[in-house]
Amino acid sequence: xxxxxxxxxxxxxxxxxSPIKQSFDQEAAAVLTARMxxxxxxxxxxxxxxxxxxxxxxxxxxxxxxYVADDVNSFRLSPEFALYPQFMFHLRRSQFxxxxxSSPDEAAYYRYVLxxxxxxxxLVMIQPTLLSYSFNGPPQAALLDAESVRPDTILLLxxxxxxxxxxxxxxxxxxxxxxxxxxxxxxxxxxxxAPQSDAQLIMDSRFPVPRYIVCxxxxxxxxxxxxxxNPSVTHNSDAGLGGVTTVNTDxxxxxxxxxxxxxxxxxx
Length: 268
Hints:
Helix content: 40-55%
Strand order of the largest sheet: 6-5-7-8-9
Shape: globular
Oligomer: single chain
Number of strands: 9
Order of helices and strands: EEHHHEEHHHEEEEHHEHH
Structural class: alpha+beta
């Protein structure tokens, strides 16, 4: 491991020329870590498994990131590792390690499927995919973040186990007024139909067939989407006062999670 001296502090260059670093498959590693964590839940307390996930992530970042010791601002992850921490962030909040609102048989089922599916499907279980539909153009991939929830958009969430079509507040109000049934609002009708058609394609190609949920912003079933989003804006945030959708949770956001990770990783 190469080291240099910069302003009196040793610098970790993250094993820059290591074949391990250059060939690291962060998606496969995330799925493998998830399966190891699930296997550990058979005999260990979930809290202990979460701490194991945290320690493993800190050790990996300490070894392969570029940083100056004790300097959080110098912390950098190469593209081969850049997405791995957020995979772990979503794994910690997933139904595999958080049993709240899951019955014992549901938890066992989720874990069983994770252990049997391929990497692509397992990654969707860990970090669901989100598409945004609006009048501004074709569907676009959206960040799995509270800020992606907007009144004038429709979101399509795929968690592998659930497919959720989520209507923003304005879209839902227009639908209730039956604007989509009027000839002059054909564009709105097409906007409503697009995510439902895409959801049907997902369900037709998957076994076991996921649960299909159609919901509106601020309604009870919206929880299926809101629970999967990064809580970048919560009821405790000042930003929640400006009309931005808030997530009612005490969980830390991805930004806070990364700040703690960087602080611990750069410690000598």
